[in-house]
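From the shared-data thread, chain only:
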Amino acid sequence: MYQIGNDFPNKMIFEEGGPCISLYQKTHRYPPDNHEDMIVYKHLIQQLEKALTRKYPDVDAEAIMKPFYELKEDRAFWEHTPDGIAILANKATCVIYLLSGAVENLAVVADDFRVLPLMAYAQSSARYCLLGLSSGSFSMFEGNQYEMKEMQISPTIARNIDDVLGKEHPEGFLNHGRYGGSDGVAMFHGHGGRKDAIDKDLEKFFRYVDKTVLENFAKPMKLPLILVSLEEHQSVFRKLSNNPYLVEEGIETSYESLDLNQLARLSWELMAPRSLAKTLATVERYKIAKANHTGSDDVEEVVRAAYEGRVDTIFIEANKSIPGRFDVLSESMECGSADDFDCGDIIDAIVKAVMKNNGEVIVLPEEKMPSDTGVAAIFRF
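Structure, as tokens:
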């Protein structure tokens, strides 16, 4: 009756016509706090039931709510929730997002979905990939601001140097000694004429890793890639890499000596300044665009440009809401009441229109917004 969403945005958010149900709930990972989550959820779906029968009296409310009822009885789900959940549902589809960050409780039935909280979460998560590389093997990880997990690599993909080059390569004749610290990292030392052969084999292995990661992970996912390896391996790998997603800075240590929490912490320390620098540069670009009349913070002008596919980049104020809708035929805004959560939301409409036309959406807290209207757009033309 429902599916777990792994990617945002899901194509369902661009489908037109209600009813569209959006439920957000702050949840808890551990007892006793998570014991209250099911109770809060029941209250939220009661709000949805009332809104659904009031706004869409001709719709089979029980049918569209069936996935919500099924989830209510899924005790295993409620015993293993993360920090928040988001549920988007219409007549045909119900998608549940498991969030590693908290959200505000919200239950809305309208003609379109409330996606700004999910958009803000997806942006703040700042997903990236991590390549753990040693002289003999590699692993892949995916992380964000909140967590890190090891990625599953197909058994058809060789992951160690023996399988790539064969067991008779000079690496097999290396002596292993523990040097250079107390972390127990094995250092390899060649002898005599073996060293050149060892260096060549290491280069062959690294070229294989670079090509494999590029084709199987980097190109499909299009995420920044952090390299975690010893300093000497960093320089060798970077000289031969053709991966445009590989970030300039790396983590110079053995990935095998770190647990997932340590990897997540070190990676986010590296990614956070990059994310901030990119945002600040885009803010400056907006200021120049506005001065040249190719940018605007006028809500009606921005929403019209969004529907026309003319928005390249837009800043949205976090938690901003403008009740109402945009009439495509008359190209005008119809504002609603702040007390009517069922009337739709102009901000969400802008976000979906920009995403649908492959524009970039950046969600910022109020104090960092380059305007005081809740929106600031850079136009394509």
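The first helix runs from residue 37 to 55.
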